[in-house]
Amino acid sequence: MQTNRLLSNLRRSDQRRLLAACDEVELCIGDLLWEPQKRIRHVYFPLDGFISQLVPVESRANLELALVGNEGMLGTPLILGVSASTLQALVQGSGAALRMSAASFRRELEQLPALRKQLNRYVFVLQGQLAMTAACISFHSLDLRLARWLLMTHDRANFDSFHLTHKFLAQMLGVRRVGITNAAGLLQKRKILSYSRGEITILNRAGLEKASCSCYQASKDLYERVLG
Q1: Pick from 162, 160, 143: which is nearest to 212 by CA?
Q2: Most buried one in 23, 177, 188, 202, CB count within 10 A?
Q3: What are the CA-CA distances from residue 128 to residues 82, 119, 131 (Å)?
Q4: CA dist 180 to 89, 155, 169, Å?
Q5: Is the CB of residue 133 less than 8 Å from the CB of residue 142?
Q6: By residue range, what is the domain housing residue 188?
């Protein structure tokens, strides 16, 4: 049975109370859950789907800042007392999630101190990971960044194969498609992955970890250190 790691760390009575306030929904690739500057109506705790958080760039494209799977939740502005987000939330991987109304979420934050503490720690981790992402974009080459992004996706997809076009990858990483072609080609030559007609298969997970920048492991270490 799939669970959400943030909720599974709470005591059983708090978990039962939160589950009673949630609906289990199916996330489908391409579903738009949030739009920038629009009121947040629901928060999501993914079970086996995953969600990209994107920042719009001059109304022409979006750059991915964070990827949320069952290790996290979509709804951090509400934790901070803000009712809207500056980001777009787009489902990247189909799967189940627990959905709670914004009003119910605010109420549970007030009445469950353990939930507030856990989610405050999650916000801290997310801030650290966003800082790493900003540094990664500035200082690491595209092939290292692509390897890191594929590892993050692989962690949340629970499958070795997934469908990702050059256009989509270029948008997520904020580069031109030719850059993705070249970077993916390097990984293919090393027999780390296969890529054909948008279908990516991870052939060598250990090799992909070696091909990634240090940001991938640093981000995981931060999560484990703070949230366990």
Answers
A1: 143
A2: 202
A3: 20, 14, 5
A4: 23, 20, 7
A5: no
A6: 141-212
Report how far apart the first and last C-alpha atoms of the chain are (Å, whole number).
20
Q: Are residues 81 and 190 in the same domain?
A: no
Q: Name, in order, each residue with C-beta under 8 angstroms of 217's C-beta and a sequence gap of 6 or more.
A: 209
Band the pLDDT of 191: cuts 50, 70, 90: very high
Q: Which residue shows structure tokens 């981000």?
A: 219
Least confidently predicted of 66-70, 117-121, 193-197, 211-215: 193-197
How do residues 119-150 score in pLDDT, each as one tens digit? 999 999 999 999 999 999 889 999 999 999 99
Q: Give the count of beta carbons closer than 10 Å to the beta carbon of residue 161.
A: 12
In a domain, 171, yes or no: yes
Tally the domains of the chain. 2
